[in-house]
Amino acid sequence: MIFRSSVALLLCVLSANALAETESFVFYRQDTQIGRLVVEVDGNAAKIDFDIKDNGRGPTVAETLTLDAQGLPGDWKITGTQTFGGKIDEAFRRRGATSNWKDSGGPGSAKGASKLYIAQSASPWALQLYARAILKAGGPLDVLPGGTLALTKGERLTLQGAAGELAVTRYDLTGLDLTPTIMLLDDANRLIALPSASGGMVRTGFEGENARLRKLAADWQSARWAVLQRESAKRFDGPVRLVNVRLFDPVAKQLTAPVSVVVNGRTISGVQPVDSPATPGETVIDGAGGTLVPGMFEMHGHLGESGAMLNLLAGVTGVRDMGNSNSVLDALDRRIIAGEVAGPRIVRSGFVEGKSPFSANNGFVVDSEARAVEAVRWYAARGFTTIKIYNSVNPQWVPALVAEARRLGLRVMGHVPAFTSADAMIAAGYDEITHINQLALGWIIKPGEDTRTLFRLTALGRLSGLDLDSAAVQSTLDTMKDKGIALDPTIGIHENLLLNRDGSIAPGATDYFANMPIGVQRDLKQAWSNPDTFGGDTSAKVAFGKLMDLLRRAHAKGIFIVTGTDTGGSLTYHRELELLVKAGFTPAEALARATLEMARYLGIDQTTGSVERGKLADFFLIPGDPTRDIKAIKTVSLVAKDGVFYLPTEVYPRLGIKPFVAVPKITGPGKD
User: Fold this and answer.
1) Element (DSSP H or E) covering residue 64
2) Which one of 64, 174, 415, 506 has the largest count of C-beta atoms within 10 Å of its C-beta?
3) pLDDT at 518
4) pLDDT tens sequence across 339-388
5) pLDDT tens readout for residues 421-470
6) C-beta of residue 427 within 8 angstroms of C-beta of residue 480
7) Rounded distance between C-alpha atoms, residue 632 and residue 255, angstroms
8) Residues of 314-338 as b/e, b for ≥16 C-beta within 10 angstroms?
9) Helix (H/G/I), strand (E/B), else coil: 464
């Protein structure tokens, strides 16, 4: 760490002579501008306007901030709305040795030496304040309301801006989240850019560097995950024998008697009697009577390298990606296959969106039927298995898009585009409806109402008046059953949307909340939405109850339910299965659906989905019995994917996560 005392002190106080100015930044999703950040600096005070809108949603934040003589926030007021409309009303004040704050978790206070306060809902401009404080301290810094931030200095590079060249330095900020925040600061420690492989933020005047910074960010992020892969992936010489384990059998939907499972290379070479002796040169892993479960499939992911590792550690060895930057996803897939980074096997869905003011900027954003059909051909030629249609696609294009997909052997699924209905999309040829709210909207909205905005979510407040026994509802469900139309409900994201409340741990996170770093814990006690937009707290809760009842009825009718989250998978995937159990699945049925039945749905059940001789070694080990309690899948002690082994308890601390379970005993020649 480097501290240039004279310059840094001047900047920390935000001298009126040096920084009396307006700073502005642009946000990108790939090449598309999606937001702005404008900061009016006057002496030691700043007024901040922050707004992002992508896919018809995003945060809108206003801040007023005053710094003290040490460059630390003394007064900070943050108001606005989060991505899904949740209220932001955060405040911090320091007077003497006493600090008081209020965030979504409620009020807090601390006395003693002045500490840097880390805001929960501030704009990214605050990151330079944190960086300056750490640089001034010369090392890691304990912060309020808890935790420690650290800054690692990286390489120097030169950016080309409107006013000429500017030298900047890369810094990685850790302690805020599960992954580092990469920032570029100039020699005056001003924030210049927050590079990201998918877009990021750049200071006005440096927009021309966006593409280059995306590439650099992808390389930097990949390098970090490559190091983690090299240091955590265990590739044993010779066979690996897992002894004293029971298998979850997804066909019988029960556990087997104790057995030994032998892995050689990428595949399972045998499922043997429990007392079978090991052969010379084997590595032996003691399962201690636990359960070996086939790797699970997250069927609604938007995968990046962080999510790839986190899903794998949670026992998710397969992810169906439902919309991404095509180039970013392709690079990630190649690196996973090559063993350079950890991650599940990826099944790709081709994202097709229509061009509008509310477009989601993934995949292909098209402006005509012809271009939509061209996108289908592009995806088919590159091995994609399905086409996902999104909100702004013109409904009149869908029959042609479906016809081309059918001709090329692809399935079609997705959102229900604006100004049409699930019934119409089923008639046009959908194979699967994505999100349970998309199914329900056709029964509760009026013609002409626009679902390209957050209205597709806030309209759920009308569910209290919906009769699920009505002819309209029953007709749709019967048609789905008769035509074999699947439903990807992503019920967990609706739980977060409708039930999370400020100050209370999110219902789906109670079992892992205490294991998370402080920043994640704060977010898990923050409402996603404003209940008033659904008609009030009671109406929001009724709406979620109605969605759960709809899911229960769909399952009982025999509609095929797909196990996806749209919340990143990993630990939230476990919650998705819990909610399926609440909706009528037995624990064993939910686990069978998540494993072999999803592999069969994807057409890869001949190589994965169950622990059998000749199949790929994709499985995870847990101490308990998930057929009795689905929550048992949360304590993963070992994961194998393609015969490479991972011990989550060894990896989690490097991500700021407290481990959940002990490491199994490993003996033999390949122990190291």
Assistant:
1) strand 60-67
2) 415
3) 87
4) 999 999 999 999 999 999 999 988 999 999 999 999 999 999 999 999 99
5) 999 999 999 999 999 999 999 999 999 999 999 999 999 999 999 999 99
6) no
7) 13
8) bbbbbbbbbbbbbebbebbbebbee
9) helix
Please give the Cα distance from 402 to 393 (Å, whole number).
13
> How does DSSP assign 169-201, residue by residue?
EEEEEESSSSSPEEEEEETT--EEEEEETTEEE
In the predicted model, is pLDDT for residue 99 greater than 70? yes
| Contacts by residues 365-374 (CB-CB < 8 Å, ≥ 24 positions apart) | 366/393, 368/397, 369/394, 369/396, 369/397, 369/400, 369/401, 372/397, 372/400, 372/401, 373/400, 373/401, 373/404
Q: Assign 124 to helix, strand or coil.
A: coil
Band the pLDDT of 671: cuts 50, 70, 90. Answer: low
Q: Which amino acid is at 566?
A: D
Q: Which residues contact 149 (CB under 8 A, 6 or more apart)?
A: 116, 118, 130, 134, 140, 141, 143, 173, 174, 175, 176
Dig out the tokens for 562 from the structure: 């797909």
Q: Which residues pair with 293 in a beta bridge?
A: 620
What the block records as the tokens of 627 is 């057929």
Cβ-based neighbours of 334, under 8 Å, separated by 6 or more: none
pLDDT over 70 at 517, yes or no: yes
For 138, residues 6+ apart whose C-beta sits below 8 A from its C-beta are 1, 3
Tokens representing residue 540 in the block = 């929001």
What DSSP character marks residue 480? H
Total residues found in the chain within this entry: 672
pLDDT, average across residues 381-402: 97
- Given this model, what pLDDT does residue 12 score? 43
Q: Which of 545, 434, 423 is nearest to 473 (CA)?
A: 423
Per-residue confidence (pLDDT) for residue 668, from 0 to 100? 87
Q: 498-531 burial, b for 16+ CB within 10 Å, e for fewer?
A: bbbbeebbbbbbebbeebbbbbbbbbbbbbbbeb
Give the residue among 363, 423, 373 at the shortest CA–CA distance from 394: 373
What pLDDT does 449 receive? 96
Q: Is the pTM of this model over 0.70?
A: yes
What is d(CA 51, CA 478) in angstroms, rounded to the nearest whole number?
43
In angstroms, the first-to-last Cα distance of the chain is 34
**Domains assigned to the chain:** 5-231 (no CATH), 313-605 (3.20.20.140)
What is 343-410 written as a DSSP string?
--EEEEEEEEEE-STT---SSEEESSHHHHHHHHHHHHHTT--EEEE-TTS-GGGHHHHHHHHHHTT-
Amino acid 590 reads: A
Q: How far apart (Å, rounded) are the C-alpha atoms in residues 2 and 164? A: 26
Query: Tell me: the pLDDT tens digits for 518-559?
Result: 889 999 999 999 999 999 999 999 999 999 999 999 999 999
